[in-house]
Write a structure and sequence with these properties.
Blueprint lengths: L9 E2 L5 E11 L5 E12 L11 E10 L9 E9 L11 E3 L19 H4 L12 E4 L14 H10 L6 H19 L10 H14 L5 E6 L2 H11 L4 E7 L12 H17 L2 H6 L3 H14 L2 E5 L8 E5 L1 H11 L9 H9 L7 H14 L6 H11 L6 H8 L6 H18 L18 E6 L7 H7 L6 E6 L11 H12 L6 H23 L18
Parallel strand pairs: 1-4, 6-7, 6-8, 8-9, 9-12, 12-13
Antiparallel strand pairs: 2-3, 3-4, 4-5, 5-7, 10-11
Helix pairs in contact: 2-3, 3-14, 4-5, 8-9, 8-10, 9-11, 12-14, 13-14, 16-17
């Protein structure tokens, strides 16, 4: 996720308790039915800094039962931030941002991470358009209490990536990390209560506490699955959905991991191979990457990097298998595609010249691995509950044999996923969690043709189960379309104002101009004329 935005702020200093209604009921002396209160919303002084460019900002902690079947028992909390519209329009209901995805990713609400990106990235569709914006970290992630982070994994990874370990040795290290993590967290949390259906219940309780009839829902990456689940389980609570780089429950992503991973690398390589100028500068790129992976597996190379969690230079030991993981993570950002050939060439050299692309990609990889706010244990709970039961792991591992240099890394990942679920030992989701959600609510689906983890072809098929949707495909973008294109943000703003209005043509025109501006800027920065690439990117397509 990336990008930034603008307005005026004020921090709420009152502590306010609002009772929420739960299902268990009792009758008072007058015979009226009263619902017992188990959830509450606690207003807090905002824990992050704002300034006078921010909208009026209110901060809360939402307290809910960890297990709704036993609401009187353990309570947990997750953060809620409300950005008020500059000029509120009473006819526009709020947009709820369901978190950063992952599952387990932090929204960046922590004091040291919070910035105007939290609202500026969505300003055109919310606070600047008369609509309030709500932002949350779902249970178990970011600023939630508890945050289900495997500190054992972070500590072991910090050490492991400084050593030359075989894939088998690395897998043993991380399996032991997860065993210790589960042993610690399971003493104070029921790890079976962290999944999409429970988060959907949290969202509906939040709606009740704010006395709202409906929300518009915004989901990016895995949080788009939360949006779909809310629409399925609480259809009367939802007006419209915005799905950005969407995850659909009827796509078993792990089953397709070998093929999708191979396709992602192929797209990365073809970006240069199919470009005459790039291919002439970096010929035979596919073979060179294969040779580089083999060379680094035989003779790993230590790359000195600096990342945000290291106080000094960090000696990352780069093996061929680790290179593949670093590259895959880098391919989430379309801007990396131009850097991939440079990174391969830089690593082919024995000197340190040309290593900057590799150093930046490795630093980004390590910042994700070592992120203390990532609720990776919550992510494991999601996977083991709502995806793993529907995966044929033997078949997936057999498919890995057909992915060439990726085979070892993919098999290792599949093995580790199975081990994690054996450790977690939580019940499996019902079949419902693997079925298409055909909500009648209006939906806009935005997707990138370069997305490495959510293949556009799969999403193009899955979205057709939605009876009332619009489809905007951005062929030259990867993961998180809203953060990469102002045209996408404007399209969503128009959609929320009028879900019946088709956004294809308007977005097509906007995107062509946006690409032309980007090309012009690139030419100026290169200080030399560049052959026009305006035709390289087809405009967003309508799939309806």
């Amino acid at each position: 996720m990336r990008k930034a935005r603008l307005l005026t702020a004020f921090t709420l200093l009152l502590t306010l308790l609002i009772g929420a209604c739960e299902r268990p009921t009792q009758t008072n002396q007058s015979g009226e039915v009263q619902q017992k209160q188990y959830a509450r919303l606690i207003a807090k002084p905002c824990w992050f800094k704002t300034d006078d460019t921010w909208p009026f900002t209110q901060c809360f902690m939402m307290e809910v039962p960890e297990d709704y079947r036993h609401p009187e028992k353990r309570k947990i909390r997750f953060p809620v931030v409300r950005f008020r519209a500059t000029n509120p329009d009473p006819s526009k209901i709020p947009l709820l941002h369901l978190g950063a995805g992952g599952p387990g990713a932090s929204m960046g609400l922590e004091p040291e991470n919070a910035s105007d990106w939290l609202w500026l990235n969505y300003a055109a569709m919310t606070v600047e358009d008369g609509r309030d914006l709500f932002v949350i970290d779902p249970r178990g992630t970011g600023m939630a209490q508890p945050r289900l982070t495997c500190s054992e994994f972070i500590e072991d990874a910090d050490t492991a990536f400084q050593r030359n370990l075989s894939p088998e040795e690395e897998a043993r290290v991380f399996s032991f990390s997860m065993e210790r993590c589960y042993s610690r967290l399971s003493k104070g949390s029921d790890l079976a209560q962290y999944n999409s259906s429970v988060i959907a219940r949290d969202v509906d309780e939040l709606r009740k506490l704010f006395k709202l009839d409906k929300f518009d829902l915004y989901g990016v990456s895995y949080s788009s699955r939360y949006a779909l689940t809310v629409a399925r389980d609480y259809p009367e609570s939802v007006r419209a959905l915005v799905l950005n780089s969407a995850v659909f429950p009827n796509i078993v992503y792990t089953q397709q991991l070998p093929q999708d991973s191979l396709a992602a690398y192929e797209r990365g390589l073809k970006h240069c191979i199919d470009d005459e100028k790039c291919n002439s500068l970096y010929p035979d790129l596919r073979r060179r990457l294969e040779n580089l992976v083999q060379t680094l597996d035989e003779k790993p190379r230590t790359i000195s990097i600096k990342h945000r969690y290291s106080k000094q230079r960090y000696p990352f030991v780069l093996t061929g298998q680790r290179l593949l993981r670093v590259l895959f993570q880098a391919l989430y950002n379309e801007n990396f595609y131009n850097e991939l050939p440079k990174m391969i060439e830089g690593l082919e050299s024995n000197n340190d010249e040309g290593l900057q692309p590799a150093q930046e990609a490795i630093a980004h990889f390590m910042e994700i691995v070592l992120d203390p706010y990532f609720g990776d244990a919550a992510g494991v709970s999601h996977f083991c509950y709502e995806e793993a039961p529907f995966v044929n792991f033997d078949k997936a591992k057999a498919s890995a044999a057909e992915t060439g240099i990726l085979g070892g890394a993919v098999r290792s990942d599949l093995n580790l996923l199975q081990i994690q679920c054996r450790i977690w030992a939580i019940p499996s989701a019902p079949l419902t969690e693997s079925q298409a959600i055909a909500t009648p609510a209006p939906v806009i689906v935005l997707h990138g043709g370069l997305d490495p983890v959510l293949a556009a072809n799969d999403v193009d098929t899955a979205r057709k189960e939605l009876p009332n949707h619009q489809w905007l495909l951005f062929p030259n973008l990867a993961h998180d379309i809203i953060s990469a294109s102002n045209c996408a943000e404007r399209a969503v703003a128009r959609f929320l104002d009028n879900p019946k209005e088709d956004q294809t043509e308007t977005t097509m025109t906007c995107r062509k101009a946006e690409l032309a501006d980007q090309l012009s800027t690139q030419q100026e920065s290169d200080q030399e004329p560049t052959e026009s690439q305006a035709a390289e990117v087809p405009a967003p397509e309508s799939g309806q």
